[in-house]
Amino acid sequence: MEYFHNRRHLKDSPQTQNSTGQETGIQSKSNSSAEIPVMVSILVVVICCTCFYFIYCWRWRIRNAIRRDQIQSLVTLSKLDLPLMDFSTIIEATNSFSESNKIGEGGFGPVYKGTLSSGHEIAVKRLSAKSRQGTVEFQNEVESIAKLQHRNLVKLLGCCAHKEEKLLIYEFVPNGSLDAFLFDSNRSSQLDWKTRHDIILGITRGLLYLHEDSQVTFIHRDLKASNVLLDNRMNPKISDFGLAKSFYGEDSNEVNTGKVVGTLGYMAPEYALNGTFSIKSDVFSFGVLLLEILNGQRNCSAYHLQQHGDTLLQHAWILWTEDRASEFIDPTLSNSCSANEVSRCFHTGLLCVQENPEERPTMSTVQLMLISDQMQLPSPTEPSNYARSNTVIDFLRSRDTGSTHKESLNGVTITSIGPR
Known about the structure:
Elements: H1 2-78, H2 87-93, E1 102-106, E2 109-115, E3 121-128, H3 132-145, E4 156-162, E5 165-171, H4 178-182, H5 193-213, E6 217-219, E7 228-230, E8 236-238, E9 245-247, E10 255-256, H6 269-274, E11 276-277, H7 279-295, H8 302-307, H9 312-321, H10 339-352, H11 363-371, H12 390-400, E12 408-409, E13 412-413
Helix pairs in contact: 5-7, 5-11, 7-10, 10-11
């Protein structure tokens, strides 16, 4: 009996061992399955930490680049004969940039009125250092206008660079911009013929100084009604030199740029279509502005597109060819204008907006045309009709039918600046 008992015990022993092995294998697989989520979690944490590290390094490099730009700006500005104003002084003068002190909005930021502790009124143009375009404009405008001194150019009093803030401090021009009067049916009556003629001559002198009389040749590239400010005596002052280009002894007859910036309706066709600009591009813009002052309407406005199917320039040309130039003049001027002065201004304006830049006069010639009764003026040729393309016309109509949103078309900026 003991023998058979031992035999059964021996026969059962392998089965017990096999059962124990299977249980061990199952337990091992269970442990491996439990380890997988842990490993995945660790991997995810490592990846996230790596990503956060790279993001931190990227932001650190950006912050350092901004600091370097600010230091470089301050170094450059300190070399100019221009006061560097303290940021706390500007904060106090503008009441911490309060909305009640806001007097306009430009393409690169708002403009605020301020009063210094001395009682002197200033206009502060606030630019953001976060925008590369704003930084470039700030540097360009300071370097440009700091060299310019003329009674028909707005005077830059100082500048300020503080952390991400970049500020330009100008003289305060109480009557604001020309467009606020010219294109407002309620205020345009304040611009009688003598006032308009004086404004035309003042803009002429300012642009002539930029092109020929300053030590460096400047091309403004954004001359328009909103960039002409009027002082308390309604004397014009050309402003906003953020897009200006200067030339030191270089041939400024023709320059090509890869990016077209400016305001639609005032840009010369060779610049708008090909990116080529020169002093004659400014002459074209002046011609547009001159005709707007005579007529009281914008060049590219819904009024002319709907009533005449043409821009103001084309409408002026049609009236010229039909010998009906007197119909072009703003009706509010009928009782105050000089027929001879109006005729010379109209003729000069058409000469300035000719399609071929070589046929346009220089600003020194324009000045003679406007003041000399003896000078014989050549016959103008037809202005370019590039602004009549369907894309441009649709854009202009959408802009002039109640939308106040500032838009852009192929890099062309539309800006509106209020009184400063």
